[in-house]
Specification:
Four Helix Bundle (Hemerythrin (Met), subunit A), DinB/YfiT-like (chains A, B), 170 residues, DUF1993 (chains A, B), DUF1993 domain-containing protein (chains A, B), 7 helices, mainly alpha, homodimer
């Protein structure tokens, strides 16, 4: 199979979000086993002016949804940032994956030169599809998924890098 | 330009390593300004059984070097893990980028189905090139680059996500 814009986006995001779901399941189980208030993990952060776990998950899911949706030129559902529990974060991931599964290779393949207009921190930016995916969406997405993992690891949850990588795809 | 295995690997790794270099420059400058022993940052980690900053940088550079090298079927230089200073980490990044720059699209494009045999934690694994890049090399690479950033952010170095993302590629 030839690498394509769809192959490098939708299934990659679904795979990583599925692994994030596993990591969050382990965190919820850890809180229950250790009688930790789950909000201590959900609100944990690596530095006072960094975002807490909940926001890392919200941002990661939005990056997957919005970048794939923009490349597909599909209507994107709005996901309000109201999650306060592990179950609600799992629901957020699930609805993001459900949306991603509606996108087809026909919508995204060939989007290398597609113009993506967006606003980043108050500045209008115009990308072409390929650099948007490779240099903005992908690293940004992995930044937040990894930071979610790092917050939990830093908080003592027993997870390992293979939880982040997930089942090997051969 | 059509997305290709080269486009999704070598220049992406070079860009992210260049940004990591910037982050490490800011960390070194922070240590100097605050009269912090640089080894306090170089040896910092997010949890006692996680790897410290130096090892995160070593692993990130090796993932870029080895994954691109395997896809290209190129001889890969061995980089001994001897770095103990920020300057030495910068040199490690520089020599990794120099190696990556020797690899050509002709060597890597079309490697989607190439067989990649390697050993992961004592287990022999055989990948095809595309899943190797998308589901193993890329997330693994970003995991370590982000963790390096997170260690420094957690240690109070004044860096922001745009240092991690780097100059926007349009």
């Amino acid at each position: 199979m030839t690498l394509s814009m769809y192959q490098a986006s939708v299934p990659v995001f679904i795979h990583a979000l599925t692994n994030l779901s596993t990591v969050l399941q382990k965190a919820a189980a850890h809180a229950e086993a250790k009688k930790i208030d789950p909000s201590a993990l959900l609100g944990a952060r690596l530095y006072p002016d960094m975002h807490p776990l909940v926001r890392q998950v919200q941002t990661a899911t939005d990056l997957a949804k919005n970048s794939s949706g923009r490349l597909a030129e599909a209507d994107r559902p709005a996901h309000e940032d109201t999650e306060q529990t592990f179950d609600e974060l799992q629901a957020r991931i699930a609805k993001t994956i459900t949306f991603l599964q509606t996108l087809t290779p026909a919508q995204i393949d060939g989007s290398e030169e597609k113009t993506i207009n967006m606003t980043i921190r108050g500045h209008d930016v115009s990308f072409r599809g390929q650099p948007y995916l490779l240099y903005f969406a992908q690293p940004n997405f992995y930044f937040h998924v990894t930071t979610a993992y790092a917050i939990l690891r830093h908080s003592g949850v027993e997870i390992g890098k293979m939880d982040f990588i997930g089942p090997l795809q051969n």
